[in-house]
Amino acid sequence: MTKNRLTAAERGEEVLQAAVTAFGAAGYQGTKTDEIARLAGVSQPYVIRLFGTKQQLFLDSCNRVCDRIEQTFREAAAQRPDLESLGGAYEKLMAERELLVLLLHGFAASVEPEIGAVVRQRFGGIHQLVRDLTGASAEDTRQFLATGMLLTVLTAMQVAGPDRIPLPWAEELLMTMKIHQPPETD
Q: Which regions of the protein are recorded as binding DNA (predicted)?
């Protein structure tokens, strides 16, 4: 039985997936490229050969998250171009907790000039995309993004999303946002 060798692009995709997981768990400062390499099943020098620097890998990971959010919004808008549809689509993204946590890590790492420039540009792009897809006013878009950020934080704290820890204050917040939480699991 022979094992199929992965192409460089396929291997790069595996490394990027491992980076999303690692950076989502420990953030930019707390993640070492050795850990990413271990998760991807490659050597640390190979990670650097593919991405150049840890910072570039982090930026590529943040871009992956923003691409996923934008793709999700475009797909929702293709069905119904309004904020409610986009909100329902973002609610589904809550199941991909590592993506949302990585987004928060990207905001936190924005003190690094290169990271900050990319994260600000991407968040501004999401803002504009929401307006373009829905025709929403500036105020409605602000409210939509503010609600999304609250959902992101609640998901990161594990009080929203599929593996949530049900706490009365969080349940109250989610109910006021009309978020449909999956039933609790034992």
A: 32-51
